[in-house]
Design a protein that fits this description.
- There is one protein chain.
- This protein is mostly helical and 63 residues long.
- It has one domain.
- The chain has three helices and no strands.
- The longest helix has 8 residues.
- The chain starts with 20 loop residues before the first helix and ends in an 11-residue tail after the last helix.
C-alpha cells in the first residue's frame, strides 16, 4: 500500500531559491516539482539544504 503523501505545499514555493525545482520549471523536473514542491517537500534535498541552514538566505525568514 502506498503511503499517503502530505498535501501541504513547500514553504519555499512562494519565494523559491534559484536551485529549487519550481524555479527551473522544465519538463525534466516536472515530476520533482509535483512530488516535492507540491507535497513531500521534507524529502527534498534542496529543502533540507536550506531548512538545516536557514541563514543561507534571508527569504527563509519571510515565510
Amino acid at each position: 500500500m502506498k503511503e499517503k503523501c502530505d498535501r501541504t505545499k513547500c514553504p519555499f514555493l512562494d519565494s523559491p531559491f534559484p536551485d529549487c525545482y519550481c524555479s527551473q520549471m522544465s519538463s525534466q523536473v516536472t515530476d520533482k516539482v509535483i512530488k516535492f514542491c507540491g507535497g513531500n517537500y521534507e524529502e527534498c534535498n534542496i529543502y533540507k539544504k536550506y531548512w538545516v541552514n536557514p541563514e543561507a538566505s534571508p527569504s527563509v525568514l519571510s515565510f
